[in-house]
Amino acid sequence: MQAEVNGWVKKAFETSVEDFLALIEEAKGVLDEEKEGREGSGLVRISPQAVRNVIVVGDIHGDMESFVHILKDIEAVNADRIVFLGDYGDRGSESVEVYYVLLKLKVSEDKKKKKEKKIIMLRGNHEGPPDMPVMPHDLPFSFTKKYGVRGKEVYEKIKELWEYLPYCVLVEGRYLMLHGGLPVNVASVEDIAFAYESHPSSSNFEEILWSDPVEGKGDFYSLRGAGRMFGEDITERVLRALGVKTLIRSHEPCEGVEVRQRGKVLTLFSRKRSPYFNTRAAYLVLDENALKEAKDAEELARSAARIW
Ligand SMILES: [Mn+2]
Question: Does this model's pTM top 0.85?
Answer without folding.
Answer: yes
